[in-house]
Amino acid sequence: MMALVLTIAAQAQTETIDTAQFVAVYDYECRTQDAEGQSVTDKMQVVVQVGGTVLKSMPRSVYRLRDESEKADVMADYQEAYLHMPTVWTGYPEGQATVREFIFPHEYEGSERLRVGEQSSGMQTPDITWKLSDDTLTVCGYLCQQATATYRGVEWRVWYTEEIPSSAGPWRLRGLPGLIVEAESEAHTFCLTELQQERGAITAPEQRPDVHRMRYAKLLKHKNDIYGNRQYAKNPLYYVPDLNGSITDMSVFNHNGQQLLFANGGHPLLTKAHVYQPLELE
Questions:
Q1: Which pLDDT score is estimated for 5?
Q2: Residue 248 within a domain
Q3: Is residue 89 part of a domain?
Q4: Between 20 and 30 A from 47 (CA), which of 69, 80, 90, 217?
């Protein structure tokens, strides 16, 4: 099954749009509840390629497909599906952000213009109104300063370090005078765990005719409407009227007695889920 996924990725048409100056790896946690209301914490890793003009933030599994030296972790890939983390290109196309993610049974792409502020470290920064603080803290061995902001309806507190002169951060958080090392909201936490000095290619979204493209505002509403429905945690596929007809292929992977389902080109197919905690509300 994983060999099939790698083959599909290799055959897809990709375009190099920038070169990474370094790669930042973050542990991401989401605090939520299961279908019975019990508290759970879902975890995954987010990888950010930091280029001269483009940031590409993605789940670890997406990054792994372009780095065949990494061994597949099928269970980790399956657990990513609980967290709904998209791949985000900031600065591609120029002056825009592009978001790509899979919402069964389709892959979607949304784009929007960046609300651009001043230049920082050679990269256009979005209009996130950060409030800088004099508070300092050593995080992951870096001397950091605190900043706060409300971004797309969610309040964030972050720690950034000027020891790494980059305005980058995980997901869509960015625009400070140093790399974001840790970011926390009520339900979400990102924490830097690794820096890799690599100059690998940053690739554009694969150009495939089956991808549903739209304005990002429309994609966000579609995503929040589906995952935010109270039925979702108990029945993650409640919104698919013809489930059997929507599955083009199916693979089953047995992991410690648990059956993991993958469908439509190797995408995890959840039979249970957790209460959705959106990263953005607007």
A1: 43
A2: yes
A3: yes
A4: 217
Q: What is the pTM of this model?
A: 0.89
> Residue 95, exposed/middle/buried by CB under 10 A (0-12, 13-18, 19+)?
exposed
For each of the chain's 282 residues, which pLDDT tens digit applies? 444 444 444 445 579 999 999 999 999 999 999 999 999 999 999 999 999 999 999 999 999 775 555 566 888 889 999 999 999 999 999 999 999 999 999 999 999 998 755 444 444 445 689 999 999 999 989 999 999 999 999 999 999 999 999 999 999 999 999 999 999 999 999 999 999 998 899 999 999 999 999 999 999 999 999 999 999 999 999 999 999 999 999 999 888 888 899 999 889 999 899 999 999 998
- Whether residue 209 has a cis bond before it, omega within 30° of 0: no
End-to-end CA distance of the chain: 37
Number of domains in the chain: 1
Helices (H) then strands (E): counts for the chain: 5, 18
SS (H, E, C) 202-267: EECCCCCCCCEEEEHHHHHHHHHHHHCCCCCCCCCCCCCCCHHHHCCCEEEEEECCEEEEEECCCE
The neighbour count for residue 150, using CB atoms within 10 Å, is 12
Per-residue tokens: 10: 């290799």
CA nearest 266: which of 110, 62, 13?
A: 62
The tokens for 100 are 């790509």
- Kindly give the residue spans of alpha helices, DSSP state H, lying in 12-118: 60-65, 74-80
Q: How far apart are CA 14 and CA 28, in angstroms?
A: 27
Phi/psi at 173 (5° precision): -85, 130
142 phi and psi angles, rounded to 5 deg = -110, 140
Q: How many residues does the chain have?
A: 282
Name the residue range of residue 13's domain.
2-125+186-268
Q: What is the C-alpha to C-alpha distance for residues 121 and 107, in angstroms, rounded to an integer?
A: 33
- Enumerate the β-bridge partners of residue 212: 108
